[in-house]
Amino acid sequence: MDLTLRHRRLPGVSVIAVRGELDLLTAGLLEERLQQLRRRGDEFVLDLAGTSFIDCSGVGALMRTHHRMRQGGGRLHLAAPQPGPARVIRFADLDAVLAVRPSVEHAIGAAFNDHQQTSRRLIEAAAASVVVRTIDEPRMI
C-alpha cells in the first residue's frame, strides 16, 4: 500500500497527516519528506488517524526523526493512532519517548506549548550570551 502525506504549517508547528502503511517500503519516504519539512525549533505533529499499519521500519523512522527533531530544538508528537499502530507504539515503548496524544487537537496544543517554551529558552540563551561593553571616558592625567 502507498503512503500519502498531507502537510500544513502552523506558527512553529507542522502537522503531517500520514495515510497508509508505514513499513519497509515507505519508512524511508516518510523520513525524507519530514527532513525536507523540518525547520529548527519547530514541532512536528504526525496525524496517524489514517495509518493502518506500522512495522519495525516505521518505528525506526519515527525514532530517527525524533532524534533529529530534538537536536534541532523541536519535538515529534504522534496523534490519534489507530488500534493496530497504537499497540506497536506501546510495545516498542515509543510512548515513553514520544508524546502520543489521543487527537490531533491535543497534539497541536501540546506542540504549541512546547514551541513556546523552546522559543523562550532560545531567547533567554541569546540574551545571556550578549556581551555588554562599556567604554571608559578618557581620563586626564
UniProtKB/TrEMBL annotation:
<feature type="domain" description="STAS">
    <location>
        <begin position="3"/>
        <end position="111"/>
    </location>
</feature>
<dbReference type="InterPro" id="IPR003658">
    <property type="entry name" value="Anti-sigma_ant"/>
</dbReference>
<dbReference type="InterPro" id="IPR036513">
    <property type="entry name" value="STAS_dom_sf"/>
</dbReference>
<protein>
    <recommendedName>
        <fullName>Anti-sigma factor antagonist</fullName>
    </recommendedName>
</protein>
<comment type="similarity">
    <text>Belongs to the anti-sigma-factor antagonist family.</text>
</comment>
<dbReference type="InterPro" id="IPR002645">
    <property type="entry name" value="STAS_dom"/>
</dbReference>
<dbReference type="Pfam" id="PF01740">
    <property type="entry name" value="STAS"/>
</dbReference>
